[in-house]
Amino acid sequence: MSDMTPQEQQLVEWLADMNEDDALALSNKMLLEEGADPLRVLELCRTAMDIVGKRFEEGEYFLPELAKKLGKVLIGTVHGDLHDIGKNIVTFMLDINGFEVKDIGIDVPVKTFIKEINEYQPDVVGLSGFLTLAFDSMKETISAFEAEGMRDKFKIMIGGGQIDDTVRGYTGADAFGVNAVEAVHLCKNWMGVAA
Predict the structure, then answer these.
(1) CA-to-CA distance for 42 and 68, rounded, in angstroms?
(2) What is the pLDDT of residues 40-63, one digit of tens each?
(3) Cα–Cα distance between 172 and 169 in angstroms, integer?
(4) How far apart are CA 87 and CA 91, in angstroms?
């Protein structure tokens, strides 16, 4: 698109440089005040996105510049349980929905959760467990958060296996999710983001 006017070149440059405010103002001016062809403006946007794509490929841009994370989630399977498929799906779903997620694995001891929380400072802690014995581990883990005086610093969600509101009440968690979509919904609500 070497046949661009100086104004069009400016729009492409601002879009490619992530200068959203100026680019929006200029595109509005072109469309609303000057009667520019909307398809031409769309073509300019595509050109700018091609430049962004190249910068991304070349390592000039990387994801944190393109998307501000919604919140931090620490997730792990509680001690005594080795199941991780559900946890891995939740981790993936949270990640692609804009959350920064740290997965600390399976069979995680209480003291490891506490250490990781102190280092990572999450907004949400996810406790996963598939076996019914995991409910006691979840309760023990959450009680330890209270004993450490950190319980009110983050929200706690539990998930996996036959979890319901009775189990949520027993463990002391804030909420439970029956699937990964619900886990994302919970985290978005807690972060004040429309689901």
Answers:
(1) 25
(2) 988 898 898 889 888 877 877 766
(3) 5
(4) 6
Under 8 Å between Cβ of 184 and 93: yes
Angle at 66 between CA 62 and CA 67, to 5 degrees: 115
Distance of alpha carbon 14 from alpha carbon 48, whole angstroms: 8
Tell me how far apart the terminal alpha carbons of the chain are, to the nearest angstrom.
38
- Top-level CATH class of 67-190? alpha beta
Domain ranges (residues) in the chain? 6-64, 67-190
pTM comes to: 0.67
Rg (CA), the chain: 23
Give φ, ψ of 154 to 5 degrees: -155, 165
- Give the three-state DSSP class for 100: strand
Express each pLDDT in 55-98 by its tens digit.
Answer: 877 877 766 545 678 999 999 999 999 998 889 999 989 988 88
